[in-house]
Amino acid sequence: MQQITHFRNSFPFGRPDNALKTTIKLLEQVLTHKIELNVDLADLAVYEEAELTSLECRKQTMKCLEQGAYINYLQISKATLRQLNTEVMECPSLDDMIRLAAACIEFLQETLDHYGEALNVYERMMCEMNETFWRLYGVDMESVLQAQESGSPEVLPLFHKLNTYFYDEQELRYGKFHMYLHQVFAPHIVSYLEKEELTLREELDEALERESWFPEDSSEEFSCCAVQQIVAQVKNMQKMVAGLRWPDKTFSDHLQSRTQKTTAEIFDYFVSRVFGILQIFPRLQRSLITDKSVLPDEVCVMLNSCITMRIHANELCGNATSSNTSGYNYRTDINELLTQRITVMFEFACCQLCQCIRNLLVKLSRYDKDSIFSPIFTLVNPKIAIVEPLFSQVRQNNVQITQEIHPTCTNDLLLCWYNSLLSTISAWLTSRENIDMHHFQLAVISSIFKTLFSEFSSLGLTDEALRNATYRMIHNRIEYEETMNTLNIDHTRNYKYGAESESESSED
Prior knowledge:
It is built from 21 helices and no strands. By secondary structure, it is mainly alpha-helical.
């Protein structure tokens, strides 16, 4: 029995061949009295009570192996800690436990290679010996974990190493110690995710405070540095959770769902913060007092950063085509939410850029027929060239949007810009619904309307998108006013502008 307990010393590297297996078989035969041995009967007095069954023989053998596991673990533990210059009486560190785990794995692999066949004479005997060995390791491991700060990421490499080993070992997978690992590390994993959520939000705030809103040089998405940083951290968090290979499917789905939820919340928080910065951005605010405002480069980077977040949300917030019934899929919801927020940002930016056309319409309001100043302004012979600054601004912004905005949303922003211009014209016309338009007003509005359609149509926007309800309302109003002009209902409808009026005067 001593030879079985100290099998590694009694049979180094499994030599001689089949010696350990023969010893175990011999012990079984002795215990069951199936052979006659020329030995002193006093040595067998302990077995004189009754004939032992095969199961009882297995128990005796297993008891020897358990004692051997205890002896072997103490030897490996002392040798490993001594190599690490750690006193045995001191509480080892996490790094010490990781190295000790590696030494234990190597030891058990050698045992399997040299003694596996002999120790599997009885079913699962090798497996139970390994469970005993790891149970001893678990005592030291738990004392080390109790000394760690809750939510510390430093415990994750230890779990990953141990879980990977048990997951790959068919006989030990889902065994007693494997499930014990999950019970011990589950609170650490949950605390880590809670801490990571707070850390991500804090680091995002810090990144936005120092952001210069210039595109990252290495980025093909024209986004800012903060986006690259946050996305990298989120990917690392999700990669860590996926690498845990948690065997409990319910808890595994919970971890995956939680990381997706955290990712969705961080992305939504980022877009909300950027929108708040956009609303008070100085260079965009200056567009309210100039007719030559062009969408600033920094604003383009803000919009691109939010667009990039939405693209990454499709990748990192779940798979909409998967049949995951135990978890919750955040991909569809966050994609819709970010799309709505980005649309609002587009509308806000375009509304700011519409100051040029609003200034022009204010000037046209002077020609309202119910205004006492209308005859005075008519006498100064207004020219339709008044619209040229607006056309120049529209073209410059179209070029800026086409070149600087992420290709996936270029047409969306162009269409929003077009709709903002039309909505501004529509609101101006609606306020004059019961007033016939002055001849000069009609000429300017008609010129703007046709030019806008031509400019945006040349950029690839479809007729269906351009000829929307607002377009049709403006078109109908212009047709009505032109019809009234043709019928000469107003005596001033024959008024002509610019060079034409001057040529008619010369002919007279």
